[in-house]
Structure formats: C-alpha cells, structure tokens
Design a protein that fits this description.
Rossmann fold; six-stranded parallel beta sheet; about 40% helix; binds NADP nicotinamide-adenine-dinucleotide phosphate
C-alpha cells in the first residue's frame, strides 16, 4: 500500500504488453492501484495514426474490467488542446492524496527532460521505468545518469519480454491478420465493430 501508479500513454490500442506491465508494477511495488491515462491529443503524434481518444479510452475500460487494481481516467481526453503530463499531475494531486509513481517505458523516460516543466514533474512524482525488452547495464547506466543529473526518484523494473507493440497490432489489423490473444477478446471485438486501424 504505497501509492498510486499513473500509467500514461497513447494506448493505440491497449494490448497485453501494457496489461502485464501494469500488473507487474502493481505487484512489485505493492501499489494501491494503477490508473491508466490515455493521452488526448498528443502534441508529438501524427493525428492520422491515432484512433479517437474516446475509442482508446473505451478499449482500456474493456481491457481492465474485472481487475480491481486497475482504473482508467478520462482526465486527458476531456482536456481541450494539447495535453501535458505536468497539467495532468497538477489535477491528479487534487484527486489523490497518495504518493504518485509515473510508469513509463524507457524511451519515454529518456525523452521526459523535454516535457513541459520537466523539472517540476520530477519533483511531483517518482518514476517507475520499465523495459519490455532487456534492461541491460547500458540502459541502467543511462537511467542512473538522469537520476543523478536531475535529482529524480527513478525505479527501474525489468518486465518479461512480450514483444507486442501497438504499432504491430495496427499493422496486422490493416492487413486483416490475426491479433487474437495479443489484445483481450473484448478489445478485439471493439476494434472490429468500430472498424479501427483499417488504414482507410
Ligand atoms: P506511447 O506512445 O504510449 O509510447 C511510446 C513508445 O513506448 C511506444 O513504442 C510504446 O509501445 C512504448 N511503450 C509504451 N509503454 C511502454 C512500456 N510500459 N514499456 C515499454 N515500452 C512502452 O507514449 P508516449 O507518447 O511516449 O507518452 C508516454 C507518456 O508520456 C504519456 O503519458 C504522455 O502524455 C507523456 N508525455 C508527456 C509529454 C509532455 O508533457 N510534454 C510529452 C511526451 C509524452 P506501444 O505502442 O506498444 O504502447
């Protein structure tokens, strides 16, 4: 019972890699819960490739149903204009009194220094940096450098290598290839019913 895990991302779409990350973090850090926060209108993403925020939110809602340790928040998808993690954290501080851990992939963490008010973000949360591939000595060294240079509380966690990405899933859907078991069945049905990722 150490706090709340904030799992921000595009989730375009959510897949079992994300769910495994969230469950591993919940268990390893004994957090109260994990809150998935799909991005609204990502400032750094090509709009063509990203499914509507409401669809991405809905797919998360379906994927996490039945897990009492998981929640999804619409805080970013409801916001007008670009969404920045700093603004999200300011809002979340009013909702949760608990310590916040921001869960991110290794690459996003390395880029975090370019985020709006990055140094304030570093003071507001601890980071849990996960790698879906190998967390090798080089990566650990780089994470340590950021920790030391910016005084961030960073925890690295090695996650089983699942080798599934949202990019791969979108590609497969566009080619009418199988994605069963890469996403929960409910998400598969949602993608089909709503004709997402067909590349039309
Ligand atoms: P993203 O698009 O969801 O992820 C980027 C890449 O990292 C994708 O290849 C993704 O794979 C992979 N990834 C996602 N979760 C991972 C994990 N747990 N382990 C390993 N790889 C993972 O995310 P993003 O756009 O980088 O954003 C991440 C968070 O940072 C969001 O909350 C976003 O709002 C925040 N952010 C903030 C700012 C800012 O405030 N200025 C700027 C950039 C990002 P999949 O495609 O398979 O998910």
């Amino acid at each position: 019972m150490r706090g709340i895990g904030i799992f921000g991302g595009t989730f375009n779409p959510i897949h079992i890699g994300h769910l495994i990350v969230a469950q591993e973090v919940l268990s390893a850090f004994k957090l109260d819960k994990i809150v998935f926060i799909p991005t609204g209108n990502p400032p750094h993403k090509d709009k063509e490739e990203v499914a509507p925020a409401l669809d991405r939110y809905e797919m998360i809602r379906l994927a996490i149903s039945g897990n009492s340790g998981f929640e999804v928040s619409d805080i970013e998808i409801k916001r007008e204009g670009y969404t920045y993690t700093y603004d999200t954290l300011i809002n979340l501080k009013n909702v949760y009194n608990d310590k916040m851990f921001f869960i991110t992939g290794y690459d996003a963490f390395k880029d975090s220094i370019t985020w709006k008010n990055a140094e304030k973000v570093y003071k507001m949360v601890s980071f849990i940096v996960v790698n879906r591939g190998e967390l090798n000595d080089k990566l650990e060294k780089e994470i340590n450098e950021i920790r030391i240079n910016f005084g961030v509380d960073v925890n690295a966690l090695k996650i089983p290598n699942i080798g599934i990405s949202s990019t791969e899933i979108r590609y497969r859907v566009s080619k009418e290839q199988n994605i069963r078991y890469m996403v929960p069945d409910s998400v598969l049905t949602y993608i089909k019913d709503n004709k997402l990722y067909r590349g039309e």
